[in-house]
Amino acid sequence: MSLARLSLQPLIPALACAGLLYSAAALAQDSASRIARVTVYPGVATVERVAKVAAGARSLTLTCLPATLDTQSLQIQADAAVRVGEFSVLTEDRDVASACASPLDGRIRELEDQIAAARAEASALQLVEGYLKAVAGGPAADDAATPRPPATTPAQLAAMVEALRKSGQDTQTRAHQLKRRQEALELALKPLVAERDRVASQRTRVVSVTVNLAAEREGELRLAYQVRGPGWQPSYRATLDAAKPSVLLERLALVAQNSGEDWSHVQLTLSTGQPSRATQGRLPRPWTLDVAPPPQPRPPAPAMAMAPAPAAAPLMRERSNAAQEALPSFDVGTVDKGFATEFAVPQRITVPSNGQRITLALGTHTAPAQLLTRAAPGAEEAAYLVAEMAPPPGVWPAGSVGLYRDGAYVGTGRLDFSTATASAPGATPVAGLSFGRDELVLVRADAPQDVTGSTGLTGARTERKTRRAYQVENRHKNTITLQVLHAAPVSRHEKIEVESHYQPAPSDLAWNRQSGTIAWQQPLAAGATAQFSAEHTIRYPKDIELLERP
């Protein structure tokens, strides 16, 4: 008893100090937080984490946050019972932060132990198999030093043979089972190791945020921050009902992120806003006029090229690393307005941090449409069915659209309501979606007619006359709205004169606000054929070379 008392006496102060250190460490609580909500913008995302705060806590540390965290965007809020003070941010290597070990490490070690046990048992079975082979073979006939076994009766020999057969069979069966088990364990181990390595490569550096607080009662603390790289890309599905006519627009969103932390079972919100844009527009610079100074003599060129500054190499490497580590971004291209459209996904979503694209449905909208058959015979002897519609309310970012006509898939296009134009001042702007070729409308273009000659009193000017003629036949059983487009020459120089005549008169001389694009639009009855022609006369001096870009 005295020896025990003497041996414990020197440890009492040390134990007391350890207790004090433990009490002080308890004040700096390391909390396991969870991601509760994520708002995704084009190229950036706002992540909101929630952590439990124990009653009486004086400090809270949230660890293993991604290195792409924007410290200037940090926002900290807490319940009424928790008062928040100052906070600090620490960035360190993932290997140093022991709390940031992958949760897969335990499962990986368990599988590795099972594989090692299977291999050890397989080695033991090999020893057993070798022993059985040695027993079954017996001593060599020419080995005089080996004592001969006593003579056995037929019954003993049969029992021995049966025992060897059964033991060998059991050994081979068990070895086969161990091989299959080892293959299954290694197959289960590969994706876990790959996932751990992926997370480790993304989180080579991690961020910890320590918040000083005073918790009167148990509550929650919410930490919001922005990470760059995640984004969403709009996608649509358009279904044309030619009988009504109307177009059913389905909103879709492709979400992907590579921020270094998985969004598991989170409340996801998609926004068309762009917080990464400048908050203030550019202002005009002063326009000054002054007399230019006389040119200064240029110094002589050096005899040999100067070597680049040493500081440029690290900069080049830094830019190269930034290019290699650049995370995928999505250029949504929204309407630049003071408001943004947000889509709150009703169910909780899981988006892994591996760039995998998750497709979400954001709702539908039915828009009345006006159908027309569009043809550009000078470019292609074909007609296409086009549905024109007014832009729906809200912000619709431009994106790809899958096109369906009367339930049949016809291809893909691009939906962009920012290009909507009005046919007349004060009219509602409309945008068109093309739903594939109209095989019941035949389009033909006559061979171009070009005549070039001289004009003027002295023949100093060149005159060129061209004629284009088109025919369009409607083989539908009903009347269609036909639109024929034609490219007319446009002069970009005062010395070049252009004179044009059309038959019939076009409905628009600058279709879709494009100078030189002529549009005829008219109804075409079933079985009828319409003809269109355009004659252009181009005059210019002979001493200039005409630059023509058809």
Structurally, how many domains make up the residues? 4
User: Mean pLDDT across all residues, rounded?
Assistant: 79
Question: Sheet with the most strands?
Answer: 7 strands, mixed
Helix content: 10-25%
- Structural class determined from secondary elements: alpha+beta
Q: How widely separated are the two ends?
A: 108 Å
Rg over CA atoms: 40 Å
Number of strands: 26
Spatial shape: extended
Low-confidence stretches: 1-29, 304-338
Sheet-strand content, in percent, reads: 35-45%
**Helix count, per DSSP?**
5
Descriptive overview:
The chain starts with a helix and ends in a 9-residue tail after the last strand. Helix 3 runs antiparallel to helix 4. It folds into four domains: 96 residues, Immunoglobulin-like (Sandwich); 80 residues; 155 residues, no CATH class; 101 residues, Immunoglobulin-like. With 550 residues, it is an alpha+beta fold. It is built from five helices and 26 strands. The N terminus is likely disordered. The strands form five sheets. Strands 2, 3, 5, 8, 11, 12 and 13 form a seven-stranded mixed β-sheet that branches. The protein has a five-stranded mixed β-sheet with strand order 14-10-9-17-18, with no helix packed on it. The protein has a five-stranded mixed β-sheet with strand order 19-16-15-23-25, with no helix packed on it. The longest helix is centred in the first third of the chain and has 49 residues. Strand 21 and strand 22 form a beta hairpin. The chain is extended.
